[in-house]
Amino acid sequence: MIPDPLEISAIHAAYADGSLTPVDLVKTLLNRIETYADKAVFIFRLPDEAIIAQAAALNMADRSRKPLFGIPFVVKDNIDVGGVPTTAGCPEYAYTPAKDSTVVAKLRAAGAILLGKTNLDQFATGLNGTRSPYGAPRSVFNADYISGGSSSGSAVAVAAGLAAFSLGTDTAGSGRVPAMFNNLIGLKPSIGRISTAGMVPACKSLDCVSIFANGAADAMAVLQVAEGLDEADSYSRAPKNILLPPGPCVGILAMADHEFAGDAAAAKLYAAAVAKAESLGWETREIDYAPFLEIAQALYGGAFVAERLAAVKDFYAAHPEAFDPAVRSIIEGAKRFSAADAFADIYRIQALRRAAQAQLATCDVLLLPTAPTIYTVAAMEADPIALNAMLGTYTNFVNLLDLAAVALPAGFSPAGLPFGVTFIGPAFSESSLAAYADRLHRALGAGAGKSRAQPRTMLAPPAPDEVTIVVAGAHLSGMVLNHELLSLHAKFLSATTTAPEYKLFALATTPPKPGLVRAPGFAGPGIAVEIWSLTEQNFGRFVAALPAPMGVGKVTLQDGSIHPGFLCEAHALDGARDITEYGGWRAYSNA
To answer: Of the residues 174, 190, 210, 533, which is catalytic?
Structure first.
């Protein structure tokens, strides 16, 4: 039985009880993909035999150490997959990369199964999904309506039950608008939280890799694997967590700032979402949206659009005929701006940023419509520039202000068309935003994707005043000393690996104990570890009870983040066996 919706926890539970295998799952999904009516979702599907081989190669013994074990996903076709063409929605631009992008490599290393590459508005320029020579994917709810873009195929694939999660990109709303039009969670991380190395840029200084999922818990699970500092991306930043209050003060639109393009049903659904937020005990407070709107309009209406020309300048000069007409008009229009114009807009945005920050200071988060309305494909094709601009009313400003956002389903119009709202907050507040989104998503009852099934996995709000600790040995999940963490009410956060410069030893004790040691200059595979969190008081109790030669120091993980963790005193290595080749204590113990 295939879970509905396709959620990570439900898939893993089915693997654990033997009712499903990765091969069974991908064979079912391959049949769904083959029979799905909308043939514009994919640009490139991996061969069936290659997908089945990925699934068959997974070792069930790795379930606990690979957080995305056997989870099928797709990626937007402006993100590199080694050996597979990247088109960015333009066949003439296509190239075949030798290796995976950083983010795809991380997901595959965590056990995820790649199914293929999805359609997009050409060069990720658009919020509607109709600007592709590979066809226009449609909303899963009505084939007359747009899917949203530019991450069109990525959203439709998840909403239609063809994949459990997907990667999009988001510069101006491309990871959020399609989420609304297909009843999904759309997580737009902070700029640089996920590496964009191996991604065709739209606006390099603003681009983000985004995540579509059926529930907020899944989106955060994918983020924990995907995030991390990457020297190959000059905009990459080490992840951190900014915690917001469990009961937030929520900034909402004043009535005078409502813009729903004449869609009365959308206006009512936004009001209902605000009322539901209030029923959860959250305070709401009207903000002045004017500075945000002016910033949003500047992204395409001013000199900032020149960054899109910069991304494809040489190709555009040689092949202007290869561009979609709407995309070409935007790229061509960028030529009218000078360097002086660009600086003038930078100064203007800085002044508007001050005004917007003053509004943000009055609340913890914003709760805005994801888009004012949804359009038919015919309407969009008849007026591609103006209607696309309308779709960005509540999304375009977010990256210009270095904010994070999570879009969520918020109900349906009487005509059965989807609506959505978005939480927007400070950079690196994703964990709090996702927790708010999960709670409101459940309260509104819109379900997920085409089936509208309710996600099963609840996302616990991030706990304040807790300390993380990295464990590498007998305190790992299910191992002999894990009960010591559980007795102190520790919470499991994620499974990951250390940075390459760590070695693992089996100490010459009876029985052998693990010893994690940093070895500067060593470049290994990284050691499998887990991150747990405890209250400060319980952290102190845990550390005080550690026997020699164990101690706690700072451990650097593969994503560049640094946490307190188990390390071994140097003298204890006398007579110890180097077991680094096993990749972790669990694998060594099972050998």
So the answer is: 174
